[in-house]
Each structure stands twice: as structure tokens, then as C-alpha cells.
Write a structure and sequence with these properties.
The protein is α+β, with helices and mostly antiparallel strands. The protein has six helices and eleven strands. The strands form three sheets. Strands 1, 2, 3, 4, 8, 9 and 10 form a seven-stranded mixed beta sheet that branches. The chain has a two-stranded antiparallel sheet with strand order 5-11. Strand 8 and strand 9 form a beta hairpin. The longest helix is centred in the N-terminal third of the chain and has 40 residues.
């Protein structure tokens, strides 16, 4: 009889734990969903003197944000020009760093990529930074800035002066992710859950 009571208590404890766990998970999930929806609707503003991590990523006081609508060569990517390789990824970063030297940079965005980085459009000294990167030929258009890319192609500016592998294809060939743009709902929920639980890794560029 005593054993029967103990078994019943164990079953009740297991059932209570399952209910509590399910309730806690549902709470976290609800908060994550609400946060993900708010991310889509709330425009975020950033301003200051960021540094260029690469040709399409800025760092504001430790926070990485990604320039929306463009894709620059990866930092260690090389391209070809006049029959020789050259470090187009580093040159893209140098050009972006030069744009940021002209004054305070102001960025706005309300979407994130799959790594939780805010996708932003930035202005520095009345210059559209995103557009300038594409127009100078140090980034390709990705969902915007088609006219700037067309002009860079005509003038053989930047990477268009020779041959190169598209940045997303270059990442994919090295095991990275070829996909760019805003994260889907699943990735946004995962990012929010990581924030809530304190597990965000701050992963670098794809």
C-alpha cells in the first residue's frame, strides 16, 4: 500500500512538472512571438561613429548591423583584375570606412537577418551609404539600388573592373549561407528566444 501511494505521488509530481514546464515554455514562446512582431513594426534608429567590420557591416558600440539591400565581397574574398587577384573584400571595407569618416552616421531599420543583426539604411554627411557602396562598385545590389549597380557596371567601377564571384556564392562555396535579407518568422522567434534566455551568440557575417 505504501508503495502504491509513493507511485501515485511520483505520477502527480511528474504531471505537475510537465504542466509547469509546458506553461513556462508557452510563456516564453508568447513573449518571443510578441517581440518578433514588434520588431517588424517598430523602426529603430542608431546614430554615432560606427566602424566598418567589412563592406556591408557596421559596428555601433559593439552592436553589429547590416546594410540593407546590398551585398559586399566578404572580408577575405579576392577578385581578379588585369590577370591578377586582389583583396576586393578588404578594399570594400576600406571604401565603407572612408564614407563613415565624413561625420556622424544615422541608420534606420525595423527588420533583422537570421543572425539577429538589424538591417539598416544609413546616411552620413548627406550621403546614402548603402547606395554609395553599390554606385562605387564595392557592393552588388540585393533587393534595391538597381540603378546604382547599372551605373557601376557601365563604368566598370570597383569589382566590375574585372571578374568576381558573387558574395553569396562565395560564402556558399565555403559552407556559409547564401541567403540574405530579412529573417523568416522561425529565425526571428529563435533570435528572440535567445535574447530572452541570454543565449544570443552575436555570430558574425554569413
Amino acid at each position: 500500500m505504501a508503495r502504491l501511494h509513493r507511485n501515485r505521488r511520483k505520477k502527480r509530481s511528474a504531471a505537475r512538472w510537465l504542466v509547469e514546464f509546458t506553461g513556462t515554455f508557452a510563456l516564453f514562446l508568447g513573449v518571443a512571438i510578441a517581440a518578433a512582431i514588434l520588431d517588424e513594426r517598430s523602426m529603430q534608429d542608431l546614430s554615432g561613429m560606427p566602424r566598418a567590420a567589412d563592406g556591408d557591416t557596421l559596428v555601433f558600440d559593439g552592436r553589429r548591423v547590416r546594410l540593407a539591400g546590398i551585398d559586399a565581397p566578404e572580408l577575405h574574398q579576392t577578385c581578379r583584375r588585369s590577370g591578377a587577384d586582389y583583396p576586393c573584400g578588404r578594399q570594400a571595407r576600406l571604401f565603407l570606412a572612408g564614407l563613415l569618416e565624413d561625420g556622424e552616421t544615422e541608420c534606420m531599420g525595423n527588420e533583422e537577418d537570421r543572425y539577429g543583426r538589424l538591417l539598416v539604411r544609413c546616411i552620413c554627411a548627406n550621403t546614402d551609404v548603402n547606395a554609395a557602396m553599390v554606385r562605387a562598385g564595392w557592393a552588388v545590389a540585393y533587393g534595391g539600388y538597381d540603378s546604382e549597380e547599372a551605373a557601376a557596371r557601365r563604368e566598370e567601377a570597383g569589382i566590375w573592373s574585372g571578374s568576381f564571384v558573387q558574395p553569396d556564392a562565395w560564402r556558399a562555396s565555403r559552407g556559409g549561407l547564401a541567403e540574405l535579407g530579412p529573417a523568416g518568422m522561425t529565425d526571428r522567434l529563435l533570435n528572440r528566444m535567445k535574447d530572452i534566455l541570454g543565449y544570443r551568440t552575436g555570430k558574425d557575417n554569413p
